[in-house]
Design a protein that fits this description.
heterodimer; A: 209 residues; mainly alpha; Four Helix Bundle (Hemerythrin (Met), subunit A); 80% helix; elongated; B: 126 residues; 2 domains; 76% helix; flat
């Protein structure tokens, strides 16, 4: 029974981790509440974007066909998907105590993939601004920059969080407190991947279809 | 929910099934992503392409929730987690769906003419 039941979102540490597992139940749940409120923010931004997605919202400025580079979006999607799966490595290495070197290794893989995603995203933003697609040009562009930019900021803070966790693991070892923090980070990191599914589908692909 | 805190780790076969869960999640997500991009790149009529993208996105979100966030939809999950997801989704449906509906309706009425506007607009064309 205990194998199948989850106390909180994300890969559960399991009974073997005793205190950390129990502490994570309330802490990760609280963090999940925060993420769901974050989801509402993203949802409202998606709605604004969809509302502006017509000739009036574009106000004579450049549109999706002029600005979006589907190849770059595909590359970003690949980076983020792989980054999300790589966090599975962190969770499993932590749960089955493969040692802190493995946990740090997987964390660095996640950070690198996240950074690759951000590199292409920022490159796209710069190209788009160069083509006259700056946020102040039209309502559609404002909502685009806000929504995609907010997600980018999330990924950036996720990378900072990962690096902070690497430093903490290196200094104090993989103790109970850090296990709970890593569980929260995992939920956050997978959540970003989830939001990106919405972004690449509805922000990029639907207008190009 | 019993928690026999024996201090022992779960058996390794549990680990294998968890690795498989991530692998399945990855493969399914990859296929759905490729499908969505292919729908755009192939010369489908745009309505069909959009339907494909929406279905792929929905399935991929469910896959992420199940395989990466390990939310179980059939019991075995702390009830609050799932209730919170469902509550957030219903809030979103009201707020985001409502916004989109109102704004597109308003846009339709103000710019290319709503039901009343249609008649007025259609006249000069013919």
């Amino acid at each position: 029974m205990s194998n199948n039941s989850n106390l909180y979102p994300g890969l559960n540490l399991g009974d073997g981790h005793g205190e950390a597992h129990e502490q994570a139940e309330s802490t990760v749940f609280g963090f999940w509440v925060f993420l769901m409120s974050d989801l509402i923010i993203f949802g409202i931004l998606f709605a604004s974007y969809a509302s502006y997605l017509d000739p009036v919202g574009m106000a004579g400025g450049p549109g999706p066909q002029d600005l979006f580079d589907i190849k770059s979006v595909a590359i970003q999607t690949g980076f983020l998907l792989l980054g999300g799966v790589a966090y599975g490595g962190v969770s499993l290495a932590m749960k089955y105590e493969h040692g802190r070197a493995r946990v740090i290794g997987w964390l660095l893989v996640c950070a690198a993939l996240g950074a690759g995603f951000l590199f292409f995203e920022v490159k796209d933003f710069i190209t788009q601004a160069g083509k006259g697609g700056t946020p102040q040009v039209s309502g559609w562009l404002s909502s685009y920059w806000t929504l995609v930019g907010l997600h980018g900021v999330h990924v950036f803070s996720g990378i900072l969080w990962i690096l902070a966790m690497v430093a903490q693991i290196a200094i104090r070892g993989l103790d109970e407190v850090l296990k709970v923090r890593l569980s929260m980070l995992g939920v956050f990191w997978h959540f970003l991947d989830l939001v990106w599914v919405g972004i690449f589908s509805f922000v990029f692909l639907v207008p190009l279809a | 929910m019993t928690k026999p805190n024996t201090g022992e780790l779960d058996p390794q076969d549990n680990a294998a099934s968890e690795v498989r869960s991530y692998a399945i999640g990855f493969i399914v997500s990859l296929l759905l992503t490729v499908g969505a991009f292919a729908a755009v790149l192939a010369d489908l009529p745009s309505t069909w392409a959009i339907i494909c993208i929406c279905i792929a996105a929905l399935l991929q979100i469910i896959t992420h929730l199940r395989n990466f966030l390990h939310l179980s939809f059939s019991g075995g999950q702390s009830r609050e987690d799932l209730l919170l997801v469902l509550f957030s989704v219903s809030l979103l449906a009201i707020m985001a769906g409502g916004t989109w509906y109102i704004m597109s309706d308003l846009g339709g009425r103000m710019h290319d003419g709503g039901e009343a506007g249609h008649a007025a607009h259609a006249m000069p064309d013919r």
